[in-house]
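Re: that backbone. Tokens:
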């Protein structure tokens, strides 16, 4: 019991510190942007329909589960999802951290927290996709009522800089290697970008979400390879269940470093799956050339 109380108190302190750090980062970003002027401009922009430019034809695909892991059927070939690769190549430290969290809450309670967060995230994404497509959406369930103000917070605080949409909830793939679905691809704050929406139970520090940046890098590599674009910017728009908004951006050399990190995970994944290592290395060298240009 004492151990449980100590763990709970530690988590409470970490959460308080996390809120303070997130607030500090937000205030710094707002100061740089000129929050009064830019905030008014963003609010005006979110009142107008999102501009679409359907210049690319994205593939239709079906999701399949192979041994419980998500795959995409692209041209009759099953490719592992980006999240499947990231999950399969987690560090021992991250696996242990997750195990400790489950042990602290208890397996059933941890599963409930995970499942509710997933439902809330799906509902929030549905509201955001409807806003981007201009279709509108209502969800009167308890989860929907919780997710709608979260989506609205992202719209008001994060989507004012979304200047042009090429696709929403589109499937991206790198031939023979991997596939995935990104929330938005288009022009954000003047740059070709991959944009992902995230819900969270509590605010995040930047160093906690490196997998999100790696995920964005994977999508950018796939888009750049198939459509000959030059996406070198990734945006995470995040809202906690108590409606605390955070924006994280990664670009240029830092973004390339996360793309390289994903390549290593792809190689590790296929090596673990007993795939032909020489073929994988050849493909990785091919991608490295692409992102180096």
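Recovered sequence:
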């Amino acid at each position: 019991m004492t151990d449980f109380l100590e763990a709970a108190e530690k988590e409470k302190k970490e959460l308080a510190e996390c809120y303070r750090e997130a607030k500090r980062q937000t205030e710094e970003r707002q100061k740089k942007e000129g929050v009064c002027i830019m905030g008014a401009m963003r609010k005006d922009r979110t009142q107008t329909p999102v501009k679409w430019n359907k210049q690319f034809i994205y593939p239709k695909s079906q999701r399949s589960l192979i041994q419980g892991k998500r795959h995409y059927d692209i041209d009759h070939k099953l490719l592992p999802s980006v999240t499947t690769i990231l999950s399969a190549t987690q560090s021992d430290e991250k696996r242990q951290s997750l195990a400790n969290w489950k042990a602290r809450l208890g397996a059933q309670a941890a599963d409930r927290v995970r499942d509710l967060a997933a439902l809330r995230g799906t509902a929030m994404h549905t509201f955001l996709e409807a806003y981007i497509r201009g279709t509108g959406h209502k969800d009167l369930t308890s989860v929907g009522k919780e997710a709608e103000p979260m989506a609205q917070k992202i719209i008001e605080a994060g989507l004012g800089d979304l200047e042009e949409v090429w696709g929403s909830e589109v499937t991206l793939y790198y031939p023979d290697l991997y596939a995935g679905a990104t929330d938005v691809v288009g022009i954000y704050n003047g740059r070709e970008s991959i944009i992902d929406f995230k819900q969270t139970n509590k605010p995040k520090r930047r160093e906690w979400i490196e997998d999100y940046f790696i995920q964005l890098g994977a999508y950018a590599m796939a888009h750049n390879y198939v459509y000959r674009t030059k996406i070198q910017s990734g945006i995470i728009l995040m809202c906690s269940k108590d409606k605390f908004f955070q924006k994280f951006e990664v670009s240029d050399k830092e973004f390339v470093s996360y793309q390289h990190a994903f390549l290593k995970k792809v190689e590790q994944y296929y090596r673990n799956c007993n795939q032909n290592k020489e073929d994988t290395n050849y493909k990785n060298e091919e991608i490295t050339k692409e992102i180096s240009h």
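Residues 2-104+151-292 form one domain. The first strand starts at residue 62 and ends at 66.
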